[in-house]
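Single Protein Entry

Contents — chain, fold
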Amino acid sequence: MSDDLDAIHVEDVKKYYGATKAVDGISFSVRQGEIFGMLGPNGAGKSTTIEMIEGLRAPDSGSITVLGMKQPQQKQAIKERIGIQLQTTALYPLLTVTEILDLFHTFYPNHATIPTDDLIRMVNLEEKRATRSKNLSGGQQQRLSVALALVNDPEIVFLDEPTTGMDPQARRQLWDVIRELRGRGKTILMTTHYMEEAQELCDRIAIVDHGKILEMDTPAALIRKFFQDVAIEFEDGITDVDAYKNLPGVINASIIDGKVTLHSNDVPQTMGALLSRERSGTANFRDLNVRNATLEDVFLKLTGRALRD
């Protein structure tokens, strides 16, 4: 049942393409004023779900409510109150940043908009306001696409991989923009391939795979639910994870990109066993470190693969 505080409510939504179940009975709500993240491997169904919420696709069954309006029945009214940033936005290559934003303002003749200068300042493109879009870097184009999604001062902002192609400094600058939007009372539904980004920004997260939501909660609650242990990471040139599964204290072991990750509920025992192997000459560990579990660990445990697989 949808709550009055829900900006988005999705109930048992399904979308099939022939025998492929792209979305297989997904239900969730996004509260007003929160940042909600959807995480999933490629083909998990998250993009199809978001496109149905945006009105770009119609569900085969189930119900979607956006700002109290039915989607897709009230698609046009919803469109005026949301903003969408796509992962790849087709920009007018010969127009400057200012000209593109001014053009997008004309698309909303009867709707309050955010002034172009404010948008440019918000996404830190002041020095590029007179630059043609074709001459912007990939990260700058991403920031411009976010600004375009905000032209109509939307109540809900959809961000699809908003920091792809950005360097670490630019990425964190955009994080500040996203936090500012939440501070203004905006609701944000986003996807990302950066686990640190999801953990830093999202109030709640839905982990999606094979068209279903596997888990949904705050990042901290998800980590607590699946890991009351510590991660030990290292490289050793061995790709056989079974060599570590029976060590004292180890409750889960995986190898991703040549790096071994052991989750241990008894770190001294596990470290002792590892160091004993190294002293005996049966192992040679590199870059060994101990850390707390992260959202990446939760994702790997639930889906059996890294986010970018």
Q: What stands out?
A: DSSP finds ten helices and 14 strands in the chain. The mean pLDDT is 89.
